[in-house]
Amino acid sequence: MSVTTLFRGAAVLDAERGELEGDRSVLVVGDRIAEVGSAAEVRPPDPDRVVDLRGRTLMPGLIDAHVHVYVQSMDLSQVESWLPSYLVPKAAKALGEMLRRGFTTVRDVGGADFALAQSIEEGLVTGPRLIHGGPALSQTGGHGDFRSRGDFGGHGCLRCPTIFRLADGPDEVRRVVRDVLRGGAHHIKLMLSGGVLSPTDSITSVQYTAEEIAVAVREADAAGKYVTGHTFLAGAINSALRQGVRCIEHGNFIDDTSVGLFAEHDAFLVPTLTIVRAIQELGPAMGLSGDVLAKSAEVFEAGMTALERAHRGGVNLVYGTDLLGDLQTRQLEELTLRAEVQPPADLIRSATTTPARLLGMAGEIGVVAPGAYADLLVVDGDPLAGISVLAAPERHLNLVMKAGTVYHDTM
């Protein structure tokens, strides 16, 4: 029989409207929310557990839409040297810590696979619901090609082929996209410009042609999936959106044309500020090159400006962090950085209902509503009054439930 849990006396956060509804009861049956209403309306005969929240906030679990759970080091050559028997436990530990912070769903945009997602579903690994895209596609010499300048050996393979795959030309892009989808990917990711950590390309490098992008979009559409693109540059972003790319990762140099195209195509933007700030702060001690540090400074300043432009223009903004290795402990710092631009209600929406739409799971995650998965957080305080309530889980996060199972509880 399904386990039933009754939360009563809660201030329930409606993430879409950005409002609290006081003195509500929420009934969880199995892995779903069965009822939400007043104490008089929600009266189960004999629940297995009753949790009296006494005015605490009950809200949806958070969603991080840009993680890399297999990139457990900033040094990809080190990750490449690890056997799966070592890498997977490291990824599992990181996933468990994400769940403990209140993230009940994450989207991996480069590396995670169906086996890890299945392990979470079966309870072999404790972690958030894992929406995976398999390896990201890169052109030769692009952001996913981490060979050094002097490495011309082999057949053009990448560091960590489970995280990146090379594909050049429409025919090769078509074949690799089909192969990644065969592996159960929920989306396809294309590297559309250079990156901060790329060894051989600049952030101004435009990658993949319109024809190559269009092929990827057609193949994803045919499978009922979508394409997301890594890029900082307005020109590359605008071209990608016109080709049907559904989501943009980073987007630090968007312009007014970009904002209009996001609205026209109902597309999504996932800014990732925390990773760039972390590189600025920790890069010298980590031995990162001067070129990388210079790129990070430029990208961070532009990213804050882009966030303000996108917020003002009503772009579908989604929470994402892009943190690698030990930096993943900074996952909630994205809230603090974005709070300089976005009010708490908009920030919470970006980590709940908006990514739920991107993932095709609207009404199932990111909400406290009948029929949704019972992905719930109990926090001591009002997140709408100050985002610090969510940014400091060690003080304010009392309970984490994912799909009806409690994983953290200090009630």
TrEMBL record:
Ranges of residues in domain Amidohydrolase-related: 57-405
The keyword Hydrolase belongs to this UniProt entry's keyword annotation: yes
InterPro entries listed in its UniProt record: Amidohydro-rel (IPR006680), Metal-dep_hydrolase_composite (IPR011059), Metal_Hydrolase (IPR032466), Metallo-dep_Hydrolase (IPR051781), OTAase-like (IPR057744)
Molecular function terms, GO-annotated: hydrolase activity, acting on carbon-nitrogen (but not peptide) bonds
Transmembrane segments: none
The keyword Nucleus is assigned to this record: no
Highest taxon listed in the record's lineage: Bacteria
Pfam families: Amidohydro_1 (PF01979)
Gene3D superfamilies in UniProt: Metal-dependent hydrolases, Urease, subunit C, domain 1
Entries under PANTHER family matching the protein: ALPHA-D-RIBOSE 1-METHYLPHOSPHONATE 5-TRIPHOSPHATE DIPHOSPHATASE
Protein name: Amidohydrolase family protein
Organism lineage string: Bacteria, Bacillati, Actinomycetota, Actinomycetes, Pseudonocardiales
